[in-house]
């Protein structure tokens, strides 16, 4: 009769009690569940003061909440914007890019969403993808698809010039003018109704914090039909045009609106600026609820007499 210990197979591995994991081993194991990901996007065109942001499906990207967007950093002398974010390796990460303007205040209410990507399917990083890549803003599967942003804490005030509203006297009656609307902050210390326009030299006034002015001419020409930031001398207005000027502001009732009119001299060169010919003011107490029309006098900038 053989003893039981002779039946033991010496080649079979013996059971060893596992040792408790050290702190370093636990930390390295936890890193498998997430990784540092460098989001990079090429943005060929961007307006002054605009920044690029990212939002997405995970808490680190704000979970699609506009108050929790992640602002990207611009790489100097390039069109690249990037940011390193910790993302999970256990699920797909959905995300979109957009453009915004950040005010002087540190809170989320000072962020104005200007534009964002609206492809039906958002961008995705599969959990199996290991290496970052460079995106192109607005482009997905060879298609460009972006849209204007949305209002969060701001108010949109729209001025519409249509049906040939300018009735001016003398030679100006036949002139094609540029129209510019500038928001001016109201205060008890200063009065808005001055003897002359605030922009007689054509210099851009500093807009109040969080205030934006966008201009569009309703036309078949895409270059003027799309909303763009208002230029130094406004937008040309022809009698048959429909000119849209949008003012985005935290409080439109705290602003007055200076309307300037410019005309080019018949002897002006291609590089010469237009002449400032007149102006008028719009005060917040002139507005009607929701929608209405205004008839305002246009004052000569030089002789301070009515132009029409």
Automatic annotation (TrEMBL):
Residues 29-155 form the CBM20 domain. This is Glycerophosphocholine phosphodiesterase GPCPD1-like. SMART domains: CBM_2. One of its GO terms (molecular function) is starch binding. It comes from Trichoplusia ni. Pfam families: CBM_20.
